[in-house]
Here is the input.
Amino acid sequence: MIRLGVIGHGGRISSVIKNCLREVEPDIRVVGIIDPDEAGARSRLDDCDKNDVIFYDNLDEMMKNAKPDALAIGTRCNLHTPYAIEASKYDIPLYLEKPVAINMEQALSLEKAFQNSKCQVVVSFPLRVSPLCLLAKEYIQKGSIGVPVHICALNYVPYGAVYWEHEYRNYEITQGLFLQKATHDLDYMSFLMDSPIIRVAAMATVGQVFGGTKPSGLVCSKCNEAKTCLESPENRKRNGSGWHTDDHPCVFSSDCGSPATGTNEDASSALLEFASGAHGVYTQVFFSRRDAQKRGAIISGYLGTLDFDWYPNDMKYIRHHASFTDTIKAGEGLSHFGGDTELAHDFIDLIRGEGKSRTGIQTGLQSVYACLAAKQSLENGQFVNVRQLGE
Ligand SMILES: NC(=O)c1ccc[n+]([C@@H]2O[C@H](COP(=O)([O-])OP(=O)(O)OC[C@H]3O[C@@H](n4cnc5c(N)ncnc54)[C@H](O)[C@@H]3O)[C@@H](O)[C@H]2O)c1
Here is the structure.
């Protein structure tokens, strides 16, 4: 049996445990939890964990008494670093949610904490290890497109309203959608280009779609505009535009912050320079819906282009100098396009001492450094150099 200690047993990590870790290793048990919302955390447990789990106030206590074989951190973004620093003192594997840090101070202290740590980390970057991304990598490695010279990655998020509904709209906690969302994409782009991002220029549009001046705390069921508002549950249902159609906090409320105090971007883009000399662009759009959904990249070298999209889960390989184009279709219906299962395999293998993480703490940190450069560029309108690990 694998004994797992969990810090922040929320929606995401409980789903990873139930649907991914337990799929790979049925004999895993949550033996300890640190979470101030005991009732909520308990309600998200599988039946097999409910009887034996014990709640603790801090990690030292949980380590001493629950004796976990591994740890998972699933708190909101601002607490990933402080808990990961504590976890770095123990030599057991750690599953760490992204972003691994939300500001430079956190990132630097996290990098320092892991310099001499034996704690092996699986950062929750499912896109990098998803089968489609690995297939693209395989094509690049075997020279199908020649040296990759350019990458254009697109992220048209069909469920983007979530970033204005729940805790994701709390800018204090997330620090914007480069850190919250693009951390995945900048990571896999760097992986595919086999080169770190060294310089970024970014631009964002804020406050033109979401956010606004509707009262704080407003929810659709208490709003007298629900009949006409395109975001009300009834209209989302009617228009087929919902990601969910439950009652929810108003996405046009003052709770979403403001351009002056900090708020999530309706859309944001970055121009990226890689150490290899290649460059790329990344764009994320959060108000797109339905068939506008798109997440993937176009990678080109002199010999060819790869064009993949996780939504249809397919990839086109275009030979530039021969009249053939292949379309490769991957399986469907997998969590995070199959990446979550891959991460689960990595984590269980680490715990069994049988494998290595493909998304170590370095990948999480390097991506955070690129995201922080993008954020700084949004603020000062300049190109910003990306800090490199160990600098
Ligand atoms: N890797 C991915 O693809 C992916 C997908 C979704 C979410 N996430 C990340 O997962 C994280 C959690 O998101 P969520 O939707 O599960 O949030 P959530 O609010 O459902 O879960 C957070 C949990 O942390 C607990 N918590 C609050 N304060 C705490 C404290 N001081 N100590 C310990 N626990 C505390 C909360 O009670 C809650 O149970 C976010 O950072 C998000 O970015 C990652």
Residues 295 and 337 are 11 Å apart (CA to CA).
